[in-house]
Amino acid sequence: MDEQRTVKVSKYLSRHLRHQPERIGLTLDANGWVEIDALVQAAAAHGFRFTRAELDHVVATNDKKRFAVREDQVRGTLIRASQGHTVEVDLALDPVEPPAYLFHGTHHRAVEAVRAEGLRPMTRHDVHLSADRETATRVGARRGRPVVLSVDAAAMHRAGHTFRVSANGVWLTARVPVEFLRFPEA
Description:
Layout: H1 3-19, E1 34-35, H2 36-45, H3 52-61, E2 67-72, E3 76-81, E4 101-107, H4 111-117, E5 127-129, H5 133-140, E6 146-152, H6 153-158, E7 164-165, E8 171-173, E9 181-182
Antiparallel strand pairs: 1-3, 2-3, 4-6, 5-8, 6-9, 7-8
Helix pairs in contact: 1-3
Function: Removes the 2'-phosphate from RNA via an intermediate in which the phosphate is ADP-ribosylated by NAD followed by a presumed transesterification to release the RNA and generate ADP-ribose 1''-2''-cyclic phosphate (APPR>P). May function as an ADP-ribosylase.
GO molecular function: transferase activity
Family: Belongs to the KptA/TPT1 family.
């Protein structure tokens, strides 16, 4: 499977497992899971065909591990997006104690709003944080010149904020108030 096709299938999966399952007639369960066979059939019925082998390739090779697959004895093989949903799902992730610092990559145009309001989930359910600066830099670079913010996660945790970590290592929290953010020097 070539890289262009891999990206195309990945974007299709992200759109329909995170944002618009109803657009192709899918219903995610409460935790965001859907049967792979139902997904493949719904996509084909709406003009986007891909094979199970292509789906497996996308899941296995995605550098951000955006998708999780699991076996269910009753329903068969299921898939879901690891995080980033705009549709209502409960990923059923247990609260965990975060490392002392986490990082958030954004673009330079967003910094002033973040200075005023902190980090908010915007259209998603949670703010996404990275365990290392390198990952946060890549995330921030998607929309221009990246800015990496440090999050005093230990202090947030002591103050009662809840953290969870997704299957692909993305740290999730409801919001990050300004007082827990460290901005890079200008």
